[in-house]
């Protein structure tokens, strides 16, 4: 697509040509009191000088519509051609906004005090920009221009006034403060009680996890507190996250909980070998989809927790990492069931595990059911399929977590590094 300045320039020339055509060829108009028989020279009505406006102004002022004088019978073809060109440029500009540019009223974080650069923190500026957009009752875009913005805990709080989703257009890089005391809650960038959200723009969310992974003691401490997730969504509805890069989260890259109708598309998630850096963890949520995304993580690419219903994972590439997991489940009392999981058209390369279901022993009476694994390719996967009902414990207690027999696996291609591709661990010896 042509640069916006070029489109504006072409449109200006087009509209100017229309104005020139009408100004040059318009017949003189006589004043009402004028007698054409007695006057030798016609009296010309005074017209204001033609005014040229750019395509954005034209679209905003006229809605992209130009009305012609229907009485003009000649040279209309040339005029129509020019107007079609101008209208097309207006349409291109508007469509370009939908495809990755600001739409509606723009709330630029720079206008609220954000300072690009690796030293100065911009947390409050981002919160102020969000509040202004959230309080706006029409279409709004929060613009984060190119540059590096350092942020501590940032909470985008709803509900918001407009029924139109707020667009967060991330063109720059968000970089986390490396002081874990700055994150008292579960998330670094949190969306809370937001109904209607679009997060896009091709930018990057950098959790700087390599600076804090040394503080994660969950392998040795059962009561550990997980480090903050890069994106934490709770009570979010009607949201779409697309064309975003996430790197080196402190904890989970994305944690979705108590949410409904959330779609993830065209994500790239990358981390070094950090502990508990799941690409995405979904729990207590309904109708969540992940598609056409790439996960290279230090833990599960995607993990499904308790209470996750109607989750679809489609055309996802995973590896390195620990694969795609259901669980762990049953660690806490009275956990919610997992129902309706579809994993299809996915590729796992060089992962520790492929498809895994993991539950704790002696868990409450819960159930994982309605799961479909279809059209899966695994290459150099150490443990392609695992059902582990003794996860995380050496207990000899009985097992209550039920894995429904209605679950299905279809067309799974496995190229494993080990002799046995399927491992089922149930009652311990």
Automatic annotation (TrEMBL):
<comment type="similarity">
    <text>Belongs to the glycosyl hydrolase 28 family.</text>
</comment>
<protein>
    <submittedName>
        <fullName>Exopolygalacturonase</fullName>
    </submittedName>
</protein>
<dbReference type="InterPro" id="IPR000743">
    <property type="entry name" value="Glyco_hydro_28"/>
</dbReference>
<dbReference type="Pfam" id="PF00295">
    <property type="entry name" value="Glyco_hydro_28"/>
</dbReference>
<keyword id="KW-0961">Cell wall biogenesis/degradation</keyword>
<dbReference type="GO" id="GO:0004650">
    <property type="term" value="F:polygalacturonase activity"/>
</dbReference>
<feature type="active site">
    <location>
        <position position="322"/>
    </location>
</feature>
<keyword id="KW-0326">Glycosidase</keyword>
<keyword id="KW-0964">Secreted</keyword>
<keyword id="KW-0134">Cell wall</keyword>
<dbReference type="InterPro" id="IPR012334">
    <property type="entry name" value="Pectin_lyas_fold"/>
</dbReference>
<dbReference type="GO" id="GO:0005975">
    <property type="term" value="P:carbohydrate metabolic process"/>
</dbReference>
<keyword id="KW-0378">Hydrolase</keyword>
<dbReference type="InterPro" id="IPR011050">
    <property type="entry name" value="Pectin_lyase_fold/virulence"/>
</dbReference>
<dbReference type="GO" id="GO:0071555">
    <property type="term" value="P:cell wall organization"/>
</dbReference>
């Amino acid at each position: 697509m042509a640069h916006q300045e070029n489109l504006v320039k072409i449109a200006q020339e087009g509209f100017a040509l229309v104005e020139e055509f009408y100004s040059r060829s318009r017949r003189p108009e006589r004043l009402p009191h004028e007698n054409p028989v007695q006057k030798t020279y016609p009296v010309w009505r005074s017209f204001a000088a033609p005014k040229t406006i750019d395509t954005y102004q034209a679209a905003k002022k006229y809605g992209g519509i130009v009305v012609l004088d229907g009485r003009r019978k000649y040279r209309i073809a040339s005029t129509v051609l020019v107007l079609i060109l101008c209208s097309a440029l207006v349409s291109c500009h508007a469509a370009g906004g939908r495809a990755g540019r600001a739409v509606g009223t723009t709330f630029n974080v720079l206008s609220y005090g954000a300072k690009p650069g690796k030293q100065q923190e911009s947390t409050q500026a981002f919160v102020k920009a969000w509040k202004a957009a959230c309080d706006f009752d029409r279409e709004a875009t929060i613009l984060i221009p190119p540059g590096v913005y350092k942020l501590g805990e940032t909470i985008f709080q709803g509900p918001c006034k407009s029924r139109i989703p707020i667009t967060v257009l991330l063109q720059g890089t968000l970089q986390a403060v490396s002081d874990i005391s700055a994150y008292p809650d579960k998330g670094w960038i949190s969306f809370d009680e937001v109904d209607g959200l679009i997060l896009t723009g091709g930018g990057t969310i950098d959790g700087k996890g390599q600076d804090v992974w040394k503080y994660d003691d969950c392998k040795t401490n059962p009561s550990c507190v997980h480090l903050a997730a890069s994106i934490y969504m709770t009570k979010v509805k009607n949201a779409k996250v697309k064309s975003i890069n996430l790197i080196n989260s402190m904890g989970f890259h994305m944690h979705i909980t108590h949410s409904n109708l959330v779609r993830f598309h065209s994500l790239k998630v990358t981390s070094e070998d950090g502990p508990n850096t799941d690409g995405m963890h979904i729990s207590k949520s309904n109708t969540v989809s992940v598609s056409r995304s790439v996960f290279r993580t230090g833990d599960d690419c995607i993990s499904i927790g308790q209470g996750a219903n109607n989750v679809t994972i489609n055309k996802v590439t995973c590896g390195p990492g620990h694969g795609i997991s259901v669980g762990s489940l049953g660690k806490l009392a009275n956990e919610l069931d997992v129902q309706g999981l579809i994993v299809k058209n996915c590729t796992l390369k060089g992962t520790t595990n492929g498809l895994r279901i993991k539950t704790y022993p002696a868990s409450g009476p819960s159930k994982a059911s309605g799961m479909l694994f279809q059209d899966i390719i695994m290459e150099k996967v150490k443990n392609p399929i695992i059902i582990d009902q003794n996860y995380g414990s050496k207990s000899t207690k009985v097992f209550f977590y039920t894995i429904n027999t209605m679950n299905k696996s279809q067309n799974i291609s496995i190229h494993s590094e080990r002799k046995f591709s399927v491992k089922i661990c149930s009652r311990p010896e």
